[in-house]
Amino acid sequence: MKKIFLVAAMAAVVLTSVNAQNKYKPENMSFSTELNYSPGGATTDGQFSLPDYGAKVRLHLNEKMAVRLKLGLNTSTDKDVTYYESPTDQKEYERNSKESITTFSIMPGFEYHFTKYERISPYVGGEIGLLTSTAKTKTDNTENDDKTETKRPGLGFGVNVFTGVDVYLCKGLYLGFELGLGYDSMNYKRGTTTTVSGSTTTKTDGTTSNLQSRFGFHATPSLRVGWNF
Q1: Spans in the chain with pLDDT lower than 50
Q2: Nearest C-alpha neighbor of 217 from the set 178, 185, 165
Q3: 30-57 burial code (b ≥16 CB/10 A, e <16)
Q4: Cα separations (Å) of 113 from 20, 44, 79, 103, 124?
Q5: InterPro entries this protein is in (predicted)?
Q6: Distance, first Cα to last Cα, the chain
Q7: CATH code of the domain made up of 30-80+89-228
Q8: Deepest in the core among 89, 139, 161, 227, taking most CB within 10 A?
Q9: What is the pLDDT of residue 223?
Q10: For residues 215, 217, 221 and 227, what is the CA-based torsion angle, rounded to 10 degrees?
Q11: What whole-number distance in Å separates Cα of residue 117 and Cα of residue 226?
């Protein structure tokens, strides 16, 4: 958080030396691309396109309107180790469990920019898109070679309204921040479970499916670095 505030302060210093004769913002029918990084912070459910890393491409129709395509990737992993005593030999062994969820999003959207300032471009907009996810659970132990792996695919959609600002450091280079209000829904299928016991491998269909829905305000301090071309 401190690093982001420092970057914002540096951008503000640059703004004090602005030359009003220069044009820093993108021209009509020009493209811009950016990379996003979110170090974490105050956030609730509802952010689906850029929880960790992301990228975005924009086509600036004119100085006030732009269409965008945003890609997002989120991977979370939870590992647990349980220690237990075997009733066979009275020795202690470990049972390892690993759960991971990987979500990918593709979100087309629209932005409306306010053109009052030369180097600062506040905007509002909305986006709607597709979400895909894979949930995996793996378990094994140190007592024998038995293993279990469950895979569950998910498919859903997301809707987001947002506001943000681009701060142009020089012509073609900017920093940005964004926050918004979002809803997403993910439908996880039954999936499959693969069990390995000794030399025997069995594969069965999952026993549950579920629908997850989230709605919330997100204000994660995300750093966006972009280029116009």
Answers
A1: 4-7, 9, 11, 13-21, 41-51, 220
A2: 178
A3: eebebebebeeeebeebbbbbbbebbbe
A4: 19, 26, 44, 30, 7
A5: Beta-barrel_OMP, OMP/PagP_B-barrel
A6: 30
A7: 2.40.160
A8: 139
A9: 64
A10: 80
A11: 18
DSSP category for residue 142: S
Q: Which amino acid, residue 3?
A: K
- What predicted TM-score, i.e. pTM, was given to this entire model? 0.70
129-169 confidence digits (pLDDT tens): 999 999 999 999 888 888 999 999 999 999 999 999 999 88
Are the C-beta atoms of residues 79 and 136 closer than 8 Å to each other?
no
95: tokens are 């049972």
Residue 121 · residue 166 · CB < 8 Å: yes
The torsion angles phi and psi of 101, rounded to 5 degrees, stand at: -130, 125
In whole angstroms, what is the distance from residue 94 CA to residue 83 CA? 5
CB atoms within 10 A of CB 112: 12
Contacts of 189 (CB under 8 A, 6+ apart): 152, 153, 154, 155, 206, 209
